[in-house]
Amino acid sequence: MSQSASDLTDRDLAGAGQNRRYGLHGIKALFFDLDNTLIDTVSASRAAIAEVIRILQYEYHYTEREADMVCERFQAKLSKECFDPSKISITNLRIQHWEGAIQEVKGGTANQKLARECYFLWKTTRLEHLTLTKETRKILRGLKKVAPLLLLTNGDTETQREKIEACACQEFFDAIVVGGEQKEEKPSPSIFLHCCELLGVQAEDCVMIGDSLDTDIQGGLNAGLKATIWINKTGIVPKETSPIPHYTISSLLDLPGLLVQ
Questions:
Q1: DSSP SS3 for 146
Q2: Vertex 42 angle, CA 173 and 227, to 5°
Q3: Helical spans, DSSP H, in 34-176
Q4: What is the reported pTM?
Q5: Which of 107, 143, 208, 256 is 20 to 30 A from residue 176's alpha carbon, by CA?
Q6: Which of 180, 187, 186 is nearest to 90 (CA)?
Q7: Are 109 and 121 in contact (CB under 8 A)?
Q8: Which DSSP letter does residue 250 get?
């Protein structure tokens, strides 16, 4: 019978090699992704967009279609975002995203005032919805008793640090590494090796847990980690060219059962 994360002991983790394919014994550190691994960024973003649509419709009298189109244009710009902190702040860049989206849909001159309002409403609402569930806290608390935990997240410093503050996850981690503060982000091996140095461990003794095949899993493989664990919440079928994780689970809640069976 699987133990809960809060019941894990050093002996349990050291002997957790029940999965015969690779064996998870001898783990000396666990690396966790943040977005859509520990916190539900997708749902938080959806709630934030819904709030912007509401004010565009009811305060600025946009039609439903216009409000939807503005938000769709913003999200498209966000998904293609190229951020250079030496040239512009993340705040000004994302205000520009909103400004461009509004102008593309409504025409006329740029409306920076409304763009700023949309940005800060979107940002604030999203942060308000970024929380660690009770179950996630319990799992992290239990795992921290038996191995060092490190948070490894891609993204610019301001955005990711704000998310970390919002979900109040700092207490669970021995170290926190933000990609935007390093020379290279995931999936580059260098950032994983930096994490190993911070904890004083070897790559072959570490495990990466995350939801992205392209960054978390590929990066863990590139760095030669002991194992990679992919959280596939939606049950998607990977492309044939996608990196192959050592393990796949459907939820973070399955992690203790994988480590200790």
A1: coil
A2: 45
A3: 41-58, 64-79, 90-106, 112-128, 134-144, 157-167
A4: 0.89
A5: 256
A6: 180
A7: no
A8: S
**Residue 11 counted as domain residue:** no
pLDDT band for position 260 (cuts 50, 70, 90): confident
131 contact partners, CB below 8 Å, separation of at least 6: 39, 166, 167
Check whether residue 145 and residue 92 sit in a common domain: no
Domain span at 218: 29-39+131-260
* Among the listed residues 46, 76, 70, 77, the one whose alpha carbon sits nearest the alpha carbon of residue 118: 70
Residue 165 and residue 254 share a domain: yes
Query: By the 8 A CB rule, do 227 and 247 touch?
Result: yes
* Pair 137, 243 in one domain: yes
- Domain boundary among the residues 112, 129, 146 is at 129
pLDDT tens-place string over residues 15-31:
333 333 444 778 999 99
Read off φ and ψ for residue 177, nearest 5 degrees.
Answer: -125, 125
pLDDT single digits (tens) 198-226: 999 999 999 999 999 999 999 999 999 99
| CATH number where 167 lies | 3.40.50.1000
DSSP notation for 184-211: S-TT-HHHHHHHHHHHT--GGGEEEEES
